[in-house]
Amino acid sequence: MIDNSNSALHEKDGIPQPETTNKNSAKKIKLNRRKHPTVNEFVTGILNGNITFLSRAITLVESTNKNHQKKANEILEQCLPYANKSVRIGITGVPGVGKSTFIETFGKHLTGLGKKVAVLAVDPSSSVNKGSILGDKTRMEQLVTDENAFIRPSPSGTSLGGVAQKTRESIILCEAAGFDTIIIETVGVGQSETAVHSMVDFFLLLKLFGAGDELQGIKRGIIEMADAIVINKADGDNIKNAKIAKVAFTKALHLYPPKENGWQPKVLTASALNNLGIEKIQKMIWEYINLSKENDFFNKKRNQQNKHWLYATIEQELKSRFYDDSKTKNLLPLEISKLENGKTTPFNAAKRLLDLQ
Amino acid sequence: MIDNSNSALHEKDGIPQPETTNKNSAKKIKLNRRKHPTVNEFVTGILNGNITFLSRAITLVESTNKNHQKKANEILEQCLPYANKSVRIGITGVPGVGKSTFIETFGKHLTGLGKKVAVLAVDPSSSVNKGSILGDKTRMEQLVTDENAFIRPSPSGTSLGGVAQKTRESIILCEAAGFDTIIIETVGVGQSETAVHSMVDFFLLLKLFGAGDELQGIKRGIIEMADAIVINKADGDNIKNAKIAKVAFTKALHLYPPKENGWQPKVLTASALNNLGIEKIQKMIWEYINLSKENDFFNKKRNQQNKHWLYATIEQELKSRFYDDSKTKNLLPLEISKLENGKTTPFNAAKRLLDLQ
């Protein structure tokens, strides 16, 4: 099913109504309860796998309203003990590589195995109005009607940090609702791949074969992050070229040392459109997960990721507070100008700006 | 010449004596003036190329004493108009690759061309007492006695940010003193290569050939930073293997897009010990510099680097202030523990820590 209910809470003033205690209006109580479930109702609903509660809780997570955020935080902390048990898979690739088709086929394969699949996205450039990468329902026709799949478009927001935080919190809610496989799609704008890499257990890069120059123009750092590269659209006349690309990528991956857990990143070919190579990919990912769990790398990595997000959030907020301060805003352009004209050093300029605080 | 005078200022209390106005003791005035030159005397001395003043000014830059730092900042700002005119070259490579011998031979070649060469270092692990990578004079026997060379060991310090700042400020002083070529050596501990890359015009990676696995185990990100790779110790029986390594590195470099200024990183071989290939390397670097100056990339990059250091300094200081705060220090371990036990999310933990401020 697809969830586009980003605006499920309709309060225009942004303040949810308190649970009414008006004894004279049982009907009103019921209505208000439906409109504004309590934290406990949210948690119970989510733990029962109720998709409406899940969707509305995610909407609270995504809200910029302080009361919503407070409620979201309470829901999150109560859901935490039931979260953390899924396999989290990040998928990236440039537009045109076939991400939607791949996730559709891959997702159907997973639900066919009895898994419950949530698909989330990190796309800092998206907005509710403009529609996000997952907003176009027609691109995942089969998965959206699958009862064991839950698709949620990217939260809106201009800051990657904000979008990534909301997605990470949504993962917790999806896991508490019983989804055992979380797919995070990213379109790879700016640093969004790094953000997604820091919230998943397995990071998959989708590529197309080219004219022998597959590796030219590839975004710096992506290959180092990938746990696997899948060359998509490997069907018909393309199979030969896909195999050439596979050799090139395998060589490229061997330029890097194996991952911390001893994993040597793999290169596979697939045709999502024709459902070719999908099972092999699924088996590879679970092989990786099992290996990681055996040597305890799985928990270690998730712990590292949690700490990463703790520190990243703090540092992002410290920067925002500093650069949004009106005193900084006034002085910064003057110091930059001095710097550009060779009148000061970066360190003296920094000192003067910091002395404002 | 080598400069190991990190402790040229001997004030035990750390406070330089004010210039005395005692009319009764001309001798004392002279002595004190020698011991504690004024800012103007420092600047005049440096601009005249006086190495004693240069060394002592660098010692002020490296001092942790606030009065010294204030004086150093005044000297730096007065020297700035005369700085910025050199070619700055970063050199990195693992221990054993022959960095010292390479810098010795390369430096001698440069002074032979009439250039004035300053060699600085960034080694966050060094300390004055333990001796730094450039501290061992015997490793650059010829360069240390060269009148047109100035060698200064890495400033001491445990934080890379601090060491890097001091080195960057020392570059300004060396340039003002007439050094037209600045070589920054780094041993490549932690992020020190990234720091050096952000303060030089040209970044050179020294490598050895291996048993066909040259690229295995190479530090992530280094190849992307390199403007050139030089395979050292290419002499005698080694020449064949060095050529094989050259092919492997050339292929690896081609995996990345060309640099912003259109430069395609080069791979060369050299034997610093036998003075082979050194002239070619020098010509390549100046070819790069000329190209960069023609298309104005040179100034653009230095401007970017200045801004990078401005922002990096600010952000480093914001973090220090936050994490050194006693309230943070008390709460952080508790929040980390909660996080590790699945009792909170990274974002809620961050919020509670930030709310302390």
SSE diagram, text form:
The structure is a homodimer of 357-residue chains.
Chain A: H1 26-35, H2 39-47, H3 51-62, H4 66-79, E1 87-92, H5 99-112, E2 117-122, H6 141-144, E3 149-151, H7 160-176, E4 181-186, H8 192-197, E5 202-207, H9 222-225, E6 228-231, H10 239-253, E7 266-269, H11 278-294, H12 297-324, H13 326-340, H14 346-354
Parallel strand pairs in A: 1-4, 1-5, 2-3, 2-4, 5-6, 6-7
Helix pairs in contact in A: 2-3, 2-4, 3-4, 3-7, 13-14
Overview of this protein structure:
The structure is a homodimer of 357-residue chains. Chain A has 357 residues and is an alpha/beta fold. Chain A folds into 3 domains: 32-77, Up-down Bundle (Single alpha-helices involved in coiled-coils or other helix-helix interfaces); 84-295, Rossmann fold; 307-354, no CATH class. Chain A contains 14 helices and 7 strands. A 7-stranded parallel sheet of chain A has the order 3-2-4-1-5-6-7, with helices on both faces. The longest helix of chain A has 28 residues, at 297-324. The termini of chain A are far apart. The relative contact order of chain A is 0.10. At the A-B interface, helix 4, helix 7, helix 12, helix 13 and helix 14 of A face helix 4, helix 7, helix 12, helix 13 and helix 14 of B.
